[in-house]
Structures are given as structure tokens and as C-alpha cells.
Amino acid sequence: MTHYDLVIVGTGSGNSILDHRFADLKTAIVERGTFGGTCLNVGCIPTKMFVHTADVAATPAHSARFGVDEQLTGVRWADIRDRVFGRIDPIAAGGAQYRRQHADNANVTVYDGTGRFTATKELTVTGADGQTRVITADRFVLAAGSRPIVPFVPGLTEAGFHTSDTVMRLERLPARLGIIGSGFVAAEFAHVFSSLGVEVTLIARSALLLRREDTEVATRYTDLATAAYDVRLLHETIGAVRRDDGSVALTTLSPAGADEVVVDEVLVAVGRQPNSDLLDPAATGVEVDQDGRVVVDAHQQTAVEGIYALGDLSSKYQLKHVANHEARVVQHNLLHPDDPIESDHRFVPAAVFGSPQIASVGLTEEQAREQQVPYVVGRAEYAGIAYGWAMENTTGFAKLLADPATGLLIGAHLIGPHASTILQPVIQAMSFGLDAHTMARGQYWIHPALPELIENALLNLPLDRS
Ligand SMILES: Cc1cc2nc3c(=O)[nH]c(=O)nc-3n(C[C@H](O)[C@H](O)[C@H](O)COP(=O)(O)OP(=O)(O)OC[C@H]3O[C@@H](n4cnc5c(N)ncnc54)[C@H](O)[C@@H]3O)c2cc1C
Ligand SMILES: NC(=O)c1ccc[n+]([C@@H]2O[C@H](COP(=O)([O-])OP(=O)(O)OC[C@H]3O[C@@H](n4cnc5c(N)ncnc54)[C@H](O)[C@@H]3O)[C@@H](O)[C@H]2O)c1
After folding, report:
1. In total, how many domains does the chain have?
2. d(CA 432, ligand 2 centre) in Å
3. Active-site residue numbers?
């Protein structure tokens, strides 16, 4: 048994904690999978590299209305895939090598294997070969992330399916892809594969795609997706079977009765579960909530002194910018235990990089109503601003919610080109308490750029005083 000052479980956001300020601490870092975690290897980074490629591939389909006749003559899947992972895999390998071998990390030992608590502040690490090593520490950082949920569907395991962990490394592009689910992963991969020429069928249990977005945004997205893909709403997948010709028949049940969807590959995208079950935090006295999330306080500390948790393991947001923020908080609190700081989860934004993009921050209109928060709504359409005309966009819009008395923004919801970028000034205004009128009129807005969408929505807010 080896004792450490600090043990970090998970090399996603957890790996970013260690720097020269920890050089005096005898430290271990434990990883069961690929060094670098979800965002780098199977999450944000590769998906967005595929999304940009999809945007490029989709361009010819929209170019004729500008008087430009373009044709997509083919996509080279192997080249697309290998460009993405040719860039990413060396970064993961380099990160692992840096921790294992570089002089900067003389104080760090990397353990390959799954960490599981076996007693208070005692972790047993089981390697792929089944060998176990027991380590103890004064302090722990639990950054073990989450993994895709696979719902029980009779026959699905035998038929074979992909998750976001594997679908980006497909050997070849399928002609038809069935996606079970209707959230972030479903929307992004529907755009990616459809733009590359794959027939996409989205099988959603709910009546709306992206149903956690503001309802107006989710409704607009559902309408646009229905025009672009084969969308089956209110369909529960109840069976799967791989046929002799290699296709997979998915049986679904909807209010209209049983139905069948025949595809070549299946992507399961129904959410992610925290990896707390692998860690058994209870064995060290750390509490887990009913959704499997490790419970932390505002300092990211669990109920056990010196054990911190961050990211998808403990956060309901499951977003990389949140995991990064929490990792910085944990880093500070490890370095300055007598002067701890708190995480700031007041205004957490999110973006779906599908087609079109969606970006949001703060309350939806439905949440504001439920919580009885006073609000007014200001809207603007891409079709109402000059750059929106340039893009011939007729479907995108911004919807802002503000407190009518103070003018402070309480929510923002965008659907349309570059929504993830255009939202940023709103996040800034909310974070720093800038009211809508000052934001709209206290600065220049570059004309005729896309952020004029926000300027117009701000000016359209029916505030008590403006
Ligand atoms: C397809 C996809 C696209 C995404 N796109 C975006 C995006 O565009 N923007 C965004 O903000 N977020 C995105 N996310 C979410 C984002 O990737 C995660 O929120 C973030 O990576 C979580 O970081 P983490 O450090 O908490 O966990 P992870 O990065 O998952 O790190 C956890 C690590 O711990 C290891 N581990 C787990 N259990 C153990 C154990 N018991 N012992 C040892 N090691 C263990 C795992 O192998 C893993 O490497 C996406 C996610 C997916 C799946
Ligand atoms: N751009 C981004 O920031 C980004 C991109 C991808 C993933 N992510 C993160 O990863 C997480 C996981 O993404 P996701 O799309 O898998 O989950 P999600 O939570 O976004 O959506 C899952 C959807 O599947 C539905 N569902 C649940 N069980 C089902 C079942 N048995 N059959 C059919 N549908 C079912 C849910 O109702 C929900 O609408 C997200 O919560 C997000 O935080 C972020």
C-alpha cells in the first residue's frame, strides 16, 4: 500500500489541476481509459471537428439560392475520420507521456486501471490485467466523469449498436443511421451524418426534440429537423434485430401503434450517467444522490474533508466549461484550504452544434413562469438584420427574457447560424449585472454583423423604463 498526499481519479478535467504549485506533493493520478477523458477523446473536440466538416459538406445544398451552383461530388469518410483522430490521438498520448515521464512530473505516479474505494480514503486500483494496487491519500479529487446510458431494448446488444464513444470511428459510412434519443448527441450526430450523405432516422420518445430547451426553440428545431431527417416523435424503441443482410430492424411503439425502422447502424444517445458506481464513494463516506451524482458543497468538497469532486461525476450540467470551472475551484481550494472559493453556477450557458445551432443561458420562459419570476420577452429574427438577409436566413431567432423592473437579463435562447458565438455578450451581461438598456445603447454594435440580432432583441424588450 502506497500513501500519497493527493490522488486524482480521472484524467479529463482532473488532469488540468496539477501544475508546478503541486510539485511538493506526492501525487497519484488514476485513469481507466484513454488519457485526457471524454472532451478530448470522444466528446467536444472530435464532435466539433466533425460538425465543421459537416457544415462544409452541407454548403452546396444551400448555395444555389445565392446564384452559386455547387455540387457535392463525394465525401471521403476515412480521410475525414483520420484527420480528426490523427490530430487528437497524439494529443492524448502526449498528455499521458508528459505525466508519466517529464521531469515536471517527478512527483506524479500514473496508475492505469479502475479506482474503487475500499475503505476510508483507500482506493483499490484494478488494472486491465486484473492486478490490484491499493493506494491511500490525505486528499482526493474525484473527476471520474460519466458514460453513455444504454437503455434496455430487447435484442439491441445482440444486434450491435454504437454510442458517441464509438460512432466517430466507424470503419465505413453506413447508408442509413438510426439514432435513438433526441438530445445534444442526437442533434449533433444527425447533422454530421446527414450532411455526409447518410439517411438519418431520429427516434424520439418525447413529443419534441431537444425538449429541455425553451419550448419555442425546441419547436422550431423539431420542425427544421423533421424537414431534414426522418423524425419519429413519441416512438419508444422496443426491439432490435440484425438481419442476414446486415441491416438492423428497430421496432418502435407509438400512440399510432407498432412501427419498424430499418437501418445499417444504430446510435444510442439517451443521456449519460455518472461513473460513481465504478468508484463506490460510499466506501469512503462520500454521498451520492438519486441520480448517481457525487454530492458536493459550493467549494466542490464532499461531506468528507479533503475529498473533492468535479465535472460530470458531480454536476448536473455535464458540460466541459463547467468541469473546467470546477477544476479551477478545486485547484484553488487544494492550494488554499484556509481561503476556499465557491463555484459560480449562476449563468451556465450551453450550445448544441447541430443544424441549425442552438445556444442558451439562464431560464427558459417555461421555467420563469413555473418559478413565478417576473419577466418580459424581447425577440429578434435573423431575417430582420442585414447579415441575416445576406445569409438568406428565414428561420433563426433570438429570444431574451428580462426582469421588467430592473432590465436585468434572466434568460436567452438562440437558434440559427453561429448562435453559440452570438450568445457570448449576453452571458457577459448576465454575469456582470449589465441591464438590457445599458447593454443595448451603452456600446457600439458592429454593423452589419450578426450580434445586431442581440441588439434588436434587447431593444424589443418591453421594460418598465427604457
Ligand atoms: C459526444 C459528446 C460531445 C460533447 N460536446 C460538448 C461540447 O461541445 N461542449 C461541452 O461543454 N461539453 C460537451 N460534452 C460534455 C463534456 O465532454 C463533458 O462534460 C466533460 O468532458 C466532462 O469532463 P470530466 O472531467 O468531468 O469527465 P471526463 O472527461 O469524462 O473524465 C473522466 C475520466 O475518468 C476516467 N474514470 C472514470 N471512472 C474511473 C475510475 N473509477 N477509475 C479511474 N478512472 C476513471 C474515465 O476513463 C475518464 O477518462 C460532450 C460530451 C459528449 C459525449
Ligand atoms: N454541445 C454540447 O455541449 C454537448 C454535445 C453533446 C453532449 N453533451 C453533453 O452530454 C450529455 C449527454 O448527451 P445526450 O444527448 O446523450 O443526452 P441528453 O440528456 O441531452 O438527451 C437525451 C435524450 O434522450 C431521451 N431519452 C432518455 N431515455 C430514452 C430512451 N430510453 N429512449 C429514447 N429516448 C430517451 C431523453 O428524453 C433526452 O431527450 C448532455 O447532457 C450534454 O450535457 C454536450
Report:
1. 3
2. 30
3. 447
* Ligand whose nearest atom lies closest to the CA of 184: 2
Q: Tens digit of pLDDT for each residue in 78-131? A: 999 999 999 999 999 999 999 999 999 999 999 999 999 999 999 999 999 999
Quote the distance between the C-alpha of residue 327 and its chain's center: 17
Helix (H) or strand (E) holding 323: helix 320-335
Q: Is the CB of 327 under 6 A from ligand 2?
A: no
Amino acid identity of 103? A
Cα(291) to centroid(ligand 2), Å: 14
Task: Look at residue 350 and tell me if it is in a domain.
Answer: no
In this structure, which amino acid lies at residue 394?
A: T
Give the ligand at the shortest distance from the Cα of 222.
2
0.90 surpassed by pTM: yes
Residue 11's identity, in one-letter code, is: T
- From the CA of 312, how far away is ligand 1's center (Å)? 6
- What whole-number distance in Å separates Cα of residue 429 and Cα of residue 435? 7
Instruction: State whether 364 and 420 are in the same domain.
Output: yes
> For the stretch 141-168, what's the b/e string if a residue is b when 16 or more beta carbons lie within 10 angstroms of its beta carbon?
bbbbbbbbeeeebeebeebebbbbeebb
* Same domain for 188 and 238: yes
Which ligand 1 atom sits nearest the alpha carbon of residue 36? Answer: 49
How confident is residue 466, by pLDDT bands cut at 50, 70 and 90?
A: low
Output phi, psi for 43, to 5 deg. Answer: -125, -125
Closest atom of ligand 1 relative to the 10 alpha carbon:
34
**Concatenated DSSP letters for 164-189?**
TTTGGG-SS--SEEEEE--SHHHHHH
Residue 379 falls within a domain, yes or no? yes
Q: Residues 330, 17: contact at Cβ < 8 Å?
A: yes
